[in-house]
Structures are given as structure tokens and as C-alpha cells.
Specification:
It contains 4 helices and 9 strands, in the order βββββαβαβαββα. With 148 residues, it is α+β, with helices and mostly antiparallel strands. A 5-stranded mixed sheet has the order 6-5-7-9-8, sandwiched between helices. Helices cover 34% and strands 22% of the residues.
């Protein structure tokens, strides 16, 4: 079970069969279907090499997307994706303890979660793309084209 205190409420998800909720009310990812209208969250990578590789992705999002947000906390960002506060979240330097529970929250809220190669997350995954289903493929393609 994930319970994350956020201001005046708690995000909750328990196992794959239970709906994601906030303040005991079901939550859902956004209905965004175009990356040009998406609000995308990310965090600055710690490694210089990773920052250099992420800059083209961020530039493309700023040039053609609505806006980006730097949050500083993967769990918080994933909770925002699950509740529709962000349309997507991208990070290339995470460990399973950073995303495991919160990625379940996104999935149970109707979102899609993968690594940057559009593969399911595993204990070896270090990257994550979590988003509304309507923009996931487009965002994965952008990250792969600009990041590799």
C-alpha cells in the first residue's frame, strides 16, 4: 500500500485491483491526447552526462509543448500524474524505491508507465516515463529520438 501525505490529503493505492485515490476519492490521469498541450514534469539528473542527454528532450518539450515543471521528488510527480495535475513525468536517474509504489498509483489511475524504451519497469530500470495514455507513445518517441 502506498500512502503519501500531500498537503491536506493522502494518496492511496493498494495492490493492482484497487482504484487509486486521493482523500478517499478515486483519481484519474488527465485526458490529454497531444504532447503540444501537455504539462510535463521532470527532475534534473544528478550526473552531468545525463543532464547533457536530457537537454534536447527538455528543449523539444519547451519548443513544442505547453510547459514543463521541475519538481524534485519522483513520488510527488507520479502522484500528480495519477491525479491529472501533470500530464506526464520523465526521469532518467531513478531506482526502484523511487518509483515502485507510485508507478502502481499511476497505472491504477488509468495511466501508462514504462522505461524510456517503452519496456515495463523492472528492478533494473533507471528511467521512467509515466503519462496519460493519450500521449505516452508520442512522449516515448520524443525521448528516444532526442535522448539516444
Amino acid at each position: 500500500m502506498l500512502e503519501m501525505q500531500e498537503r491536506d490529503g493522502v494518496y492511496t493505492v493498494a495492490e493492482e485491483v484497487f482504484p487509486a485515490s486521493y482523500r478517499e476519492h478515486p483519481i484519474h490521469v488527465s485526458a490529454c491526447t497531444s504532447l503540444t498541450k501537455a504539462l510535463v514534469g521532470f527532475d534534473w539528473p544528478h550526473k552531468d552526462e545525463s543532464r547533457t542527454m536530457m537537454m534536447p528532450v527538455i528543449h523539444e518539450l519547451l519548443a513544442h509543448g505547453r510547459n514543463v515543471r521541475v519538481l524534485g521528488c519522483a513520488v510527488q510527480a507520479l502522484c500528480l500524474v495519477a491525479s491529472g495535475g501533470l500530464d506526464a513525468y520523465v526521469n532518467d536517474e531513478l531506482f526502484p524505491w523511487d518509483y515502485a509504489a507510485a508507478s502502481l498509483l499511476v497505472t491504477n489511475a488509468g495511466g501508462r508507465v514504462s522505461d524510456r524504451f517503452d519496456e515495463p519497469l523492472t528492478l533494473a530500470s533507471r528511467s521512467i516515463i509515466a503519462s496519460a495514455p493519450g500521449i505516452h507513445d508520442e512522449l516515448v518517441a520524443l525521448v528516444r529520438a532526442k535522448h539516444l
